[in-house]
Specification:
Helix content is about 80%, strand content about 0%. The protein has one domain: Na+/H+ antiporter like fold (Up-down Bundle), CATH 1.20.1530. Helix 3 (about 60-80) runs antiparallel to helix 11, helix 4 packs antiparallel against helix 7 (about 135-155) and helix 5 (about 105-115) runs antiparallel to helix 12 (about 265-280). It is mainly alpha-helical. It is globular and about 65 Å long. The protein starts with 6 loop residues before the first helix and ends with a helix. The protein has 14 helices and no strands.
């Protein structure tokens, strides 16, 4: 099915247009939260059922290692580029955003692969979980170094008052990486799927498979409305940020494809690795960076990821990654 005739993608476009035309259509926050948790649970179960059949092969280990490498190197590269045309605190925040991942983009990609009958490993759900936090930790380390540099250059010890909270944020982040509700639900569902196996898959099919497409479409409607709210603030930013928001995901996807090719990953896993590398977080990262790097402008890291990169990946990126990976 073509992306622009897929009902889920069409609902995203509908929500985007409704938001741009200032409609009062909205999805209540508790329902939106439920939908996101449902999608993560269904994705985890599906991955667990697949792992119950295949086990932890060499492909699984290599795929997970590739995911971690990308989660480390992408924010390092992004920061070096971004600091040339925006403040270093903003660069750290945006680098964290693009170094982390978008669960919704990933979930939509798995649905598209299913519709095109392209097989992929269930362990890629675990790869998504592993790629969530490294970029945030790296960004906080960058921010700490910037604050220390300010103290040294100005000789003003009052600036150091922000350092303990930043160090505390790293400790909290390490804790939240293992106990955050959404992350824990994904990993717990993955484990439950592995334990219950084929019998569990049959029992849960009406919940995790039959309802999935409809609830994904409903959630993408909400994402379209949310993306539209971030467009006005994004239009006031530097044109170089627009270039970054378009070019960086393609570059990151290219890195993922090269790594997948080098390691001999299956096509489906390579596509999802490209999707993960090219996506940008607009939930997990803003929630942490807002408090850990208060010097950064939220309009930049939220507006760029949700107002530009998320729609582009959803509408054009995923089909492109599928086509390129198939050809390679």
């Amino acid at each position: 099915m073509n992306s622009f005739t897929d009902p889920a993608i069409l609902f995203f476009l509908f929500g985007l247009l409704a938001g741009l035309f200032k409609s009062n259509l909205e999805i209540p926050t508790p329902i939106s939260r439920f939908l996101s948790l449902y999608l993560l649970m269904a994705l985890g179960l599906k991955g667990g059922f697949a792992l119950a059949k295949t086990g932890f092969s060499n492909d699984v280990v290599v795929s997970l290692a590739c995911a971690v490498l990308l989660a480390i190197f992408i924010p390092l590269i992004a920061y070096q580029v971004l600091q040339r045309f925006i403040s270093k605190f903003d660069a750290a925040a945006v680098a964290a955003t693009y170094g982390s991942v978008s669960a919704v983009t990933f979930i939509t990609a798995t649905q598209i692969l299913d519709s095109r009958q392209i097989e992929f490993g269930g362990h890629m759900a675990a790869a998504m979980a592993l790629m969530e936090s490294p970029a945030i930790i790296i960004a906080i380390i960058f921010a700490n170094r910037l604050r220390q540099g300010q103290v040294a250059s100005h000789g003003d010890q009052t600036l150091s008052s922000t350092q303990p909270s930043a160090r505390l944020s790293i400790t909290q982040l390490l804790h939240e990486s293992f106990t955050d509700g959404a992350q824990l639900l994904l990993l717990g569902s993955l484990l439950i799927g592995m334990i219950s196996g084929e019998a569990g898959q049959m029992v849960m099919r009406p919940f995790s498979v039959d309802l999935f497409k409809g609830l994904l479409a409903f959630f993408l409607l909400d994402m379209g409305l949310l993306a539209a709210k971030n467009v006005p603030g994004l239009l006031r930013q530097s044109p170089l940020l627009f270039v970054f928001g378009i070019v960086a995901p393609l570059f990151h996807a290219g890195l993922a494809l090269g790594l997948a090719k080098l390691c001999g990953l299956p096509t489906g896993d390579a596509i999802l690795l490209m999707v993960l590398a090219s996506s940008a977080s607009y939930i997990a990262v803003p929630a942490v960076v807002r408090y850990a790097i208060p010097e950064a402008n939220p309009t930049l890291y939220v507006g760029l990821s949700l107002g530009l990169t998320f729609p582009l990946n959803l509408l054009f990126g995923i089909p492109l990654y599928v086509q390129v990976a198939n050809s390679v």
